[in-house]
Automatic annotation (TrEMBL):
This is FAD binding domain-containing protein. Coiled coil: none annotated. It comes from Nocardioides astragali. Residues 1-176 form the FAD-binding PCMH-type domain. SMART domains: CO_deh_flav_C. The keyword Disulfide bond does not apply. Pfam families: CO_deh_flav_C (PF03450), FAD_binding_5 (PF00941). It comes from the Bacteria.
Length: 282
């Protein structure tokens, strides 16, 4: 199928891009195009105008300091994945990004675009929520920061207004004493996950003071569950998590199989994250 007709604009400044979005209710931002272009081709989206931000300067940065990793709107998944410094500051970035699609798609697709696309089957929205990061957005009205907990409104729906551009995402650094792990099951490596689970644990000596899990493909929006109590009470953290998740049937897997994967992967990632925290302390 071919996309419905649309106007196309490739502004060379952020201000121009923001003015175009503000002036056209049906306009949409085009970043890497790896989600939007298939939607256009299948006519699941029919914007009146595409505002291509690829010529806007100063959006391709990956800035790293002790607070965390700041990723500009035009930084490609592949560039973030290739950054050893980003992986050292926040190891969950590379752990999850290596499961995002295939190299050709990662070469073009942007990490910020994936966050705004807000797909509960995508890895990076879950990672942003689990790490309690945020996204900085700009519009003709000014700038604001949206915490990850307030970014996802529903399936494929973020809380950005139609005329806002996400300019940067912030992923906090891994704290001292913390550990992370990620695993997913997909039909082929790089396909969307049938289920993915990430763990973030915080140790104080031998004591586990925090244990949170982030889930991919088992709810409508990226979901994080705090299982600290279940872990410390020697209860079943996966059962605690499943009480808050909604695994669903689709053509790829049954709800029952997804629930089974949640149990298996939860056990694995919690153990791996605790090992990770201990190995960092040595
Ligand atoms: P685009 O396609 O350009 O845009 C996506 C949406 O976000 C659009 O609505 C657009 O208007 C909006 N948008 C983008 N950037 C901004 C911005 N800066 N400000 C405001 N709005 C913006 N992803 C995964 O996470 N895991 C996978 O396993 C996976 N597998 C894939 C397999 C295939 C075959 C394909 C084609 C894609 C796959 N993807 C996967 C999607 C990929 O990661 C996309 O790159 C990503 O979801 C969107 O980034 P993009 O830059 O391509 O955004």
């Amino acid at each position: 199928m071919k996309p419905a007709p649309f106007a196309f604009l490739r502004p060379s400044t952020l201000e121009e891009a923001l003015a175009a979005l503000a002036g056209e209710q049906g306009a949409k931002v085009l970043a890497g195009g790896q989600s939007l272009v298939p939607l256009l081709s299948m006519r699941l989206a029919a914007p009146s105008m595409l505002v291509d931000i690829n010529a806007v300067p100063d959006l391709g940065h990956i800035d790293i300091d002790e607070a965390g990793v700041r990723i500009g709107a035009l930084a490609r998944h592949a560039e973030v994945l290739a950054s050893a410094e980003a992986a050292e500051t926040q190891p969950l970035l590379a752990m999850a990004l290596s499961h995002v699609a295939h190299p050709t798609i990662r070469n073009r697709g942007t990490t910020v675009g994936s966050l705004v696309h807000a797909d509960a089957a995508a890895e990076m929205p879950m990672v942003l929520r689990l790490l309690e990061g945020s996204v900085d957005v700009a519009s003709v009205r000014g700038r604001r920061t949206i915490p990850a907990a307030e970014l996802f409104a529903g399936p494929l729906e973020s809380t950005l207004a139609h005329d806002e551009i996400a300019v940067e995402a912030f992923f906090p650094a891994l704290a001292a004493g913390a550990g992370v792990a990620f695993e997913e099951i997909a039909r082929r490596h790089g396909d969307y996950a049938l289920v993915g689970v990430a763990a973030l644990v915080q140790l104080d000596g031998d004591e586990i003071t925090g244990a949170r899990l982030g889930f991919v493909s088992v709810s409508d929006i990226p979901t994080v569950v705090d299982v600290t109590e279940a872990v410390n009470d020697r209860a079943d953290p996966a059962a605690a998590a499943l009480a808050e998740l909604e695994p669903a049937d689709d053509i790829h897997a049954s709800a029952e199989y997804r629930a089974h994967l949640v149990k298996v992967l939860t056990t694995r990632v919690l153990a791996a994250a605790i090992d990770h925290a201990r190995s960092r302390a040595r």
